[in-house]
Structure formats: structure tokens, C-alpha cells
Amino acid sequence: MSDRLERRAFRRDGLAIEGEKGGMLFDRICDRAHWCSKEVLHPTIELAVEIAREGREGRRIGTLFTVGDADNVLAHSRPLILDPLAGHPDEVKHITDPDLRGTVKELAQLDGAFVISDAGVVVSACRYLDAKASDVDIPLGLGSRHFAAASISKVTQAIAIVVSESAMVRVFDCGSLIAEIIPELWLLSRYNIQLRAPFTEEHVSDLAVLVKEP
Question: Where exactly are the transmembrane stretches of this chain (predicted)?
């Protein structure tokens, strides 16, 4: 991992979890996925956690990210509106760029998914995922956004990350839920864990990360 990414940190109410520690927190997710670029997946999960914690304009919001296999994801999706990221150079659309991350937080209020390439470029936003997969493994009670995430991770090589309006973050790979991230520990007593056993559970500061065992 580059020095730039090592220095990244979660920030909330002026507090920070150092990027190295935060990165270690997500190593198990990378280890569980069928492929992983830590330099791309880690900052994407960090951003998802920030959105889950902060919401926007005083309300919780939900959104979806796909990471990797961007061409296939684009082929299995369509724009809901004129793409707000179209026409901008790749060098200003990397997932680690602070300005881009702020833009993503604003665009997350709109419907649709963000598509991120293997190289970490956010190539498109506000995409409707058209993937149809009949054999996905999704727990009962999860909604259409989670089904779309499971399906796109089944029909492509992408990993899908969902931020739910309940502030939970879930990761799908190969059509299955492989991890849940609880951005505030008090939520553990409020929401049912959807990840099926066996799974591991780790805490860092006020984060809990649950990862399904192979």
C-alpha cells in the first residue's frame, strides 16, 4: 500500500482512526473476496463507511458501489440520468482524491450505482444495474439495492458494496454476502446481523467488521 493510502484516516467529530489500522480492519474482506486490490477496495469501503455515518443534510442515505470489471458492469447497466462524471479526466476521478470523494458524497443522494474500475477510477455514477441472476445468496429482508449488488457481483467479476439507509455497509462477491460493517457499535443491539454463520467479528474503535468464513 502506498504512503498516501497509509496516511488516510477515518474521520468523525474531529477524531481519526489511522489509515494503517483502518486498512488492517478490511484485510479480512480482501482475503475473503475472489480478487482484491487493497489500494482500491480499502478507500472505497472507507468512503462507504463515511457515508453511512454522516448521511447527507441530516438524513441517512443509501447507495451502491461496484469495484472492478468496470466494462462488464457498464454493459449490465444503464444511466438513470446524464452521467455527472462523464467528460472529466481520469486523473481527477480517482477514489482516493479528496475532491472526488466529496463529489461522490453529494451524488450519493441520487439514485443509482457508482462504477469504479480496477485502477480506482470512478468511471460512472447514477447507473441502474440491469444484471439478472437467479441463484444469488441474499438473506431475506434485504431490499432491491442489495439484490442488485448481489446480482452484479454474480454476473461480473466486480465486488459490490452497499450502504443501506439503516447505516449498515454490506459487501457482496460472487453473488453472496461476504461481509457486514457496522459503523457505530450501538447499532449491533438495534439491527439483526444478516451474515450467515460462521463468520469472524473484529472491532476497531467504534467500528465492527463481520466477515464470512470460507
Answer: none
